[in-house]
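Changelog excerpt

This revision adds worked examples to the README so contributors can see how folded entries look when concatenated. The first example is reproduced verbatim below.
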Amino acid sequence: DAGGRYERAVEHAAELVRLRVDVLVTDGMPAARAAKQATTTIPIVMGAVGDPVGGGVVSGLAKPGANITGLTLVTAEMNTKRLEFLKAAVPGSSRVAVLMNPDNPSVALGRQETEAAARSLGLTLHVVGARQPEDLDRAFSEILKEQARAVVLLPDPMLFAQGTRIAALAAKSRLPTVGEAREFAAAGGLMAYGPRVTENFRRAALYVDKILKGAKPGDLPVEQPTTCGLAINLKPARAL
């Protein structure tokens, strides 16, 4: 995943291709696109990706084609549910910040869904971008300046990896925050709703196994999550 520094993803993918690996496993949309750019022959397994069809990585979920398959983290109305849970947790709130990584192509779909949900729930959104970990302090300062009452995170590998820091900034700012995976709640965030990211990568190992045994990636359907879970951390809940 290039450590969240997506401008290096292409360089890393090219290096792995030069090493003649048998299979590439990717985390996140930028890494998947970099791998696709780097090779049309080495099989690619997406361990966790937002919208692979909308992001131009595969032609379809049922028949991805070419040398790519794997698993997506996207299910219908997931971002809508996160906003609904956040509004329920913070009654009376009308202004919500959306923290996203503008460099991640997958956030376009998530942003559209969140904006549509906000309209239906009567919420005003303020979108704040953070491309690198060092952008997070500035992002939360902007969120406070805009007088947002809560924060929703759009799924992104960099934000996921910075869960502990984001949770600490949210606690310092007294901002209820909802993320994509239970790891965010475990790191100190108020709550999270979505599929288990770790389970995605366990299942990615099954794809690798099938490919090493002769299966063609393009013939293996891209798998979507079948279950999602809501996690709430009572410590920040009590503090808030």
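The second example, added in the same revision:
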Amino acid sequence: MDIFCYFSHHRITIPATWWINAAHQHGIHVMGTVIFENGSEDEFLQMINNSSKSISQLAALSQHYGFDGWFFNVEIDLPSGITYTDVTSLISSLRAALRSGNPSALVIWYDSVTISGSLNYQNCLDDQNNAYFVASNGLFTNYWWWQNRSLIQTSIKTANGDSRSPFDVY
């Protein structure tokens, strides 16, 4: 294991200290989770509209508790007036803020929202979610990639086109 994601269906999930300590003893990165699911459009809009404050708070939480970044899971359509560039700006700024305190910090994006702003799982890295991949350290694909094995090749081709390792696609 290289990365341990402490996942929960709560808006912000901070890993337990004993998980962080155990993982770090073995050189494993630990990530908290930021998740927006059905019915949380207003909260996501607030995060985007207050991105500087959101970024500083997420970075402060990570630094205070000593974990290595965030798994960003946005499983809603983007609220009206919010574009994918607003989201990628938040992600890339969060990535930079985290790295200022921890050079190995990560932000991993979940394959959920496309550049059109709609919730539409691609099950791979492709032109519909690549902007989020470019802004982050990696992309965790949705679970249905195994139903079409050619999606693996699509992910590899897209990552290579960005001069990124296909191993940045989880």
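Reviewer comment on example two: Residues 84-101 form the longest helix (18 residues). The mean pLDDT is 95.
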